Amino acid sequence: MRFLLSLLLRVLTSPVRSHVDPEIEMLALRQQLAVYQRSVPRPRLRVRDRLFWCWLSRLWCRWKDVLVIVKPATVIAWRRRRFARFWTKLSAHRGPGRPPVPNEIQDLIRQMSSANATWGSPRIRSELRMLGIEVAKSTVERYMVKRPKPASPTWRALLANHVPCLVSIDFFTVPTVGHRVLHVLVILAHLRRRVVHVAVTENPTAAWTAQRVIELPEVGGLHHRYVRRAA
Fold first, then answer.
1. Distance between CA 121 and CA 105 in Å, rounded?
2. 61-94 residue pLDDT tens
3. Rg (Cα) of the chain, in Å, rounded?
4. Domain extents for the chain?
5. Pick from 37, 32, 94: which is nearest to 63 by CA?
6. 184 touches 190 (CB < 8 A)
7. In angstroms, rounded to a whole number, what is the distance separating the alpha carbons of residues 76 and 181?
8. What is the dihedral of CA 197, 201, 206, 207, to 10 degrees?
9. Nearest Cα to 64, choosing from 109, 106, 32, 107?
10. CB-based contacts of 162, cutoff 8 Å, min separation 6
11. Considering the entire predicted model, what is its pTM?
């Protein structure tokens, strides 16, 4: 096997490039013949045989034409497994990605976050840095005390809580016999579903609508705090 490998290197480094392909072809056939002669009745490939074809498939473009003992896909699979084993072995010498955070620092982050409810992760991180402890912002957020957020009220809850002081306003149009269009403003109190004000105009400007809303307490006799515009 050493003779074949040395012969392969000698052929590839030969200055006469015109005779390289025939000699490599002869070398590949000799190697396969040697495998057949030593493996009866079925050829059994050794590690050095697989290495030979892995190297040859990288160095010679016509290696598939002379390969008969296995399929070309098998050689490609050998190369992929060898590549995976190489990087697995290389990465095994390294330790884990990020060193674990000591339990004392974890407890300190929890104490600082529970004792200072208004502090966020940047503030806690800066305080730890002043103590000589360097940690990432994501690490602080991971070990902070998680406080439950109060549920925000829904639109239905808002309507239920403020029905006595809530009114709705909306426009609708009325075509007249003279081919004019009148815009009718309706203000409805939600407490008793009562119409408290109606106004009509041909030009519903924003100033006119705002004036009707300002005059609403005097017209309806009630003090409303919220106005809802119907969509």
1. 14
2. 888 887 777 788 888 888 888 888 877 777 665 5
3. 43
4. 2-92, 103-143, 155-229
5. 32
6. no
7. 81
8. -80
9. 32
10. 225, 226
11. 0.31
Closest by alpha carbon to 169, among 144, 193, 186? 186
**Spatial contact of 168 and 229, defined as CB atoms under 8 Å apart:** yes
- Counting other chains too, the contacts that 59-65 makes at CB distance below 8 Å and 24 or more residues apart are 59/8, 59/12, 60/24, 60/28, 62/21, 62/24, 62/25, 63/28, 65/25
The answer to whether residues 192 and 179 touch, using CB atoms and an 8 Å cutoff, is: no
First to last CA, the chain: 87
- DSSP-based helix, strand, coil % in the chain, nearest 5: 55, 15, 30
Dist CA 191 CA 115 (whole Å): 45
Tokens representing 12 are: 């590839």
pLDDT tens, residue by residue, 27-39: 777 777 777 666 6
- Chain position carrying tokens 């002379």: 66
User: Can you tell me the distance from the alpha carbon of 101 to that of 105, in angstroms, rounded to the nearest whole number?
Assistant: 7
